[in-house]
Amino acid sequence: MVEQTGEEIDWDRIPPDLEDFPESVYTALCIFNSMGNRLQADIGYLGKDYINLELLYKFYLIKEYEKDWIFELLLFLDEREIKESQKRMKREIDKIKRK
Fold this sequence. Notes:
Elements: H1 2-5, H2 23-34, E1 36-40, E2 44-49, H3 53-59, H4 67-98
Antiparallel strand pairs: 1-2
């Protein structure tokens, strides 16, 4: 694509790749995607179900000193997902109200 446009690559604008992050971030993403979702019909997405977290820690061979860091990453991901779900629900409700 650079050859087609003739532009130089702006390395500061390129989004980071998964390999640019520590392995713990990849592990947190895998655990996050392995966890179940808590949903309610009139509210939507309530967050991840943390009931099996210890089992997932064992499955992914998480050491004791890593658990706090992984948990912080999971909370960060969950918070973003909840906010996005709330925005989607609000858009849908507003769309219904306009009809």
